[in-house]
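Subject: design request, 366 residues
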């Protein structure tokens, strides 16, 4: 990870041409940067994100036209959430998880992510800064619009690049960034979901209660589901959905926003994406085909003894990440019209998947 330096920008207002020029040079790009413009992008809860449009005084050569700058939000609540993360002792917070993923792992994994130009994390993990590649040209994923089966194939093949390299690694038993969930973490998670679940009838009613039985079945089982005893463990994005993806002309799926990165049951990522992001009609028509894309690449990347039937069961159990995110999310954020529509769309897709695949049977067996 980049060493902390005194002139590290703590906000977009701290950025200077000299600092950006230095970061270009450190990464092997010596170009006559003359000025830059900033524009806020996205609406992150825990961090602020800006697109930097770079202007040069001469031939820019291989220098980028733009970069993405992510930095700590101004709000005290956002900073506390970013530092604290899931509130589990020994588990890095959201800021630390994302910065350390880019600094320590991204370049070593066969999954496409934005190139890291600079990263910094304060000693108390209360502040961070990331300078990243601005993916262009590319089309952003859209949770409401959904995706084509071709885009879904790219995503399913891509996430295998995160899961396969450290599949069920012995390192997951050790403390640190790559530690698997512990019973203590599972107990914290259960309490968090219990609190959100107590408000479910108040918040959940706005998206319909036809599938309330699924929520009620999940809440008392969520701690055991989170711990995943006996389940396949891998590196996981843990928020692998269309709003965190971009699709390039190559074609290629680029995965963004790694704040929720952790070691967990591998089925979470494929369950959330295929079960909650992919439109129900597309999933029903192509579910096995898409799972076989993922499973085939897992085998190609060296995972042994992993049957397609086991992969299917991982997906069936992992889809409950959608229920977790909806129950917690709806109790934690102020709902915009788009946010409300997104939660409803995701809930409908997720519950359809759970019923189509008999996922409640696996949950009840935990």
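Subject: RE: design request

Done. Sequence follows.
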């Amino acid at each position: 990870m980049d060493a902390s330096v005194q002139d590290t920008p703590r906000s977009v207002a701290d950025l200077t041409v000299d600092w950006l020029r230095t970061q270009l040079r450190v990464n092997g790009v010596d170009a006559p940067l003359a000025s830059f413009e900033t524009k806020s992008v996205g609406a992150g809860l825990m961090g602020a994100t800006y697109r930097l449009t770079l202007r040069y005084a001469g031939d820019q050569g291989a220098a980028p036209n733009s970069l993405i700058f992510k930095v700590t939000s101004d709000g005290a609540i956002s900073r506390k959430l970013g530092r604290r993360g899931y509130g589990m002792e020994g588990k890095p917070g959201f800021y630390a998880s994302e910065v350390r993923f880019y600094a320590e792992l991204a370049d070593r994994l066969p999954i496409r992510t934005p190139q890291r130009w600079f990263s910094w994390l304060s000693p108390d993990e209360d502040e961070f800064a990331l300078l990243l590649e601005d993916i262009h040209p590319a089309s952003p994923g859209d949770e409401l619009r959904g995706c084509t089966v071709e885009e879904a194939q790219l995503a399913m093949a891509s996430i295998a690049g995160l899961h396969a390299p450290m599949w069920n690694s012995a390192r997951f038993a050790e403390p640190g960034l790559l530690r698997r969930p512990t019973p203590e973490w599972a107990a914290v998670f259960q309490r968090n979901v219990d609190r959100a679940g107590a408000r479910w009838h108040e918040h959940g009613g706005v998206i319909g209660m036809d599938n309330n039985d699924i929520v009620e079945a999940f809440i008392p089982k969520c701690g055991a589901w989170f711990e995943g005893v006996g389940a396949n463990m891998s590196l996981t994005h843990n928020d692998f959905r269309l709003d965190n993806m971009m699709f390039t002309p190559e074609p290629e799926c680029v995965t963004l926003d790694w704040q929720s990165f952790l070691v967990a049951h591998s089925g979470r990522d494929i369950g959330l994406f295929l079960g909650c992001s992919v439109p129900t009609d597309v999933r029903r028509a192509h579910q096995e085909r898409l799972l076989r894309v993922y499973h085939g690449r897992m085998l190609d990347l060296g995972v042994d003894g992993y049957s397609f039937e086991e992969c299917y069961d991982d997906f069936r159990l992992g889809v409950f990440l959608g229920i977790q995110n909806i129950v917690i999310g709806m109790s934690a954020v102020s709902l915009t019209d788009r946010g409300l529509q997104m939660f409803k769309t995701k809930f409908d897709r997720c519950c359809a998947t759970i019923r189509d695949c008999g996922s409640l049977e696996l949950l009840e067996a935990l």
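The chain has two domains: 12-133, 139-364.
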